[in-house]
Write a structure and sequence with these properties.
Helix content is about 35%, strand content about 20%. By secondary structure, the chain is of the alpha/beta class. Bound molecules: zinc ion (ZN). Zinc ion binds near residues 98, 149 and 154.
Length: about 525
């Protein structure tokens, strides 16, 4: 149940009475959720209800339950912030949120961040020290999906161990992209970093005194946008700005003339400034981007060389028509000779390791290997936090029950990187409560899986649903269906069960439960 169902002392009594009438011996009360708010008194987070006379409804509810022989386990949402976001602790600390690959944050606590873990440890300690609860249950102790967390902190800790940024994984070379190119073909001073599968140079670099010029020998399209952005961000290291050169007021020299590239920068939330003169760009703090060299008029060769020699980085990409009008710039680019136009799906093959391009010399095998490590790394974030919370709880009082509500089988738990079978092996939960809100067939196969890990179901207490969804609404489930599932798990030796959730407890079901 959610603690917010306790409106006042009267409802606290009624709820406790209702639980007692069904002869249930414990209740799990969600006390931290609702946009990062607590139902218990603490200075660490906002309170989830108004208490005009400073009453403590949670303390009163615990007392009511204990008077009736019902144990109270405080349930705590570790990941999900809860529906009613807007003024909770996560709003006060937006940096605590998880991020996806595109840098978009989600309303979910990032359990990979030390600050978040310390906050939750503090909050739970306070709860356990202040209230005579019988234990604690973690909920949403996972990531929402494998799309998280790609924040800088999580990626950096992975990079420190494996020397690879997981963000680069999907685009790292070798890789296939949709390519539209009217290429330059002969190297005359530049080094080849990657080539296409048809042998044509794909990415080249020409080094200058302190700077370099990097050439994408095709038109950056949506297909290769992530690779381009990845390389651009590497080239930005230590630089503060992106300048787009737009010299003079000639036709095609407005933002529209750069079309797709600027759209890509905008989508990636990268800021840039349009510059008219090369001389206005400071090579120590800028990166000069020339998405369409062919648009340049006049001879900027010497100016760009000065910029490069002074430590500036220049990135050039081909336009739709290619670089054929880049005559006079061959020497600057270090590549010349126009090749035949080609379009289609092409493999980009890296020729050497280079800090500017994400490379997996081991190809697909290595990509899979690193991906698995990245999944394991994120599972370990959750597992190590469960261990911290377990140790912390037991240090406060060893008799406190410590449990976690988890995805009901291995296949579903894998998707959210919740390695709870391992938690059982490590002994860092007293019991796991798989949320088996499923039909009988799935329950039977889950029981088989649970018994493989825990033959006597000593540490697995199944959670069953007593609600069902009808016409998009949650309604009380036919009690006969619930009884069928209770019989099913008891036959397999389950020591108990958890019903989700209290508001859906019917009189018929309560009567049956009290007869057990
Ligand atoms: Zn993170």
């Amino acid at each position: 149940m959610q603690a917010t169902q306790i409106k006042d002392e009267r409802t606290a009594e009624l709820i406790a009475e209702r639980i007692a009438s069904a002869k249930l011996n414990a209740v799990f009360v969600l006390v931290f959720y609702w946009g990062g708010k607590s139902f218990f008194k603490t200075d660490l987070s906002p309170l989830a209800y108004n208490s005009p006379n400073d009453s403590d409804l949670f303390a009163y509810f615990i007392e009511q339950c204990h008077n009736r022989g019902i144990r109270v386990l405080a349930r705590f949402s570790n990941g999900k912030e809860g529906e009613k976001g807007g003024e909770g602790i996560l709003t006060e600390n937006p940096q605590w949120q998880i991020e996806n690959k595109d840098g978009i944050k989600a309303r979910w606590f990032d359990l990979g961040k030390r600050e978040v873990r310390d906050f939750q440890l503090g909050l739970i300690s306070e709860l356990l020290n202040k209230y005579p609860v019988d234990g604690i249950q973690l909920d949403y102790i996972r990531f929402p999906s494998r799309d998280y967390c790609y924040c800088e902190e999580c990626r950096d800790s992975f990079k420190r161990i494996y020397q690879f940024d997981p963000l680069s994984l999907p685009y790292a070379l070798p890789n296939r992209f949709w390519i539209n190119s009217t290429p330059l073909t002969n190297l005359c001073g530049a080094k080849l970093l990657a080539r296409f599968d048809n042998g044509v140079p794909a990415i080249t670099i020409r080094e200058y005194n302190a700077g370099y010029l990097l050439l994408f020998n095709w038109q950056i399209e949506n297909s290769s946008a992530h690779l381009f952005l990845d390389i651009l961000k590497r080239a930005m290291e230590g630089k503060r700005k992106i300048y787009v050169l737009s010299p003079g007021a000639e036709v095609g020299y407005d933002e529209n003339g750069y079309g797709l590239i600027l759209q890509i920068l905008r989508k990636a939330n990268l800021k840039w400034e349009m510059m008219k003169e090369v001389s206005e760009c400071n090579p120590n703090e800028t990166l000069l981007l020339l998405p369409a060299l062919k648009r340049l008029r006049g001879n900027l060769d010497d100016e760009i060389k000065d910029f490069l020699n002074a430590g500036g980085n220049v990135i050039v990409s081909s336009s739709e028509q290619g670089l054929e009008e880049a005559r006079g710039y061959e020497e600057l680019l270090g590549i010349c000779g126009r090749g035949r136009k080609f379009r289609g799906n092409h493999l980009l093959i890296p020729l050497q390791e280079h800090p500017l391009i994400p490379v997996l010399l081991g190809g697909e095998g290595e990509r899979r290997e690193i991906w698995e490590k990245w999944v394991d790394f994120r599972k370990e974030i959750i597992t190590s936090f469960v261990k911290e919370l377990y140790d912390n709880t037991k240090a406060i009082k060893s008799s406190l029950l410590f449990s976690a509500a988890v995805f009901y089988n291995k296949a579903s738990a894998e998707k959210v990187m919740q390695d709870w079978y391992r938690w059982l092996d490590m002994g860092i939960v007293d019991f796991a409560a798989p949320m088996a809100y499923v039909d009988n067939a799935h329950l039977v196969s889950a029981l088989r899986e649970w018994k493989q890990a825990d033959p006597n179901l000593e540490k697995i207490i199944p959670g069953l649903s007593i609600y069902e969804v009808k016409n998009g609404r949650e309604v009380t489930k036919d009690y006969k269906k619930v009884i069928k599932q209770i019989e099913l798990i008891r036959k397999e030796g389950a020591r108990g069960f958890i019903l989700f959730s209290l508001p859906f407890l019917s009189d018929d079901l309560a009567k049956y439960l009290s007869s057990l």
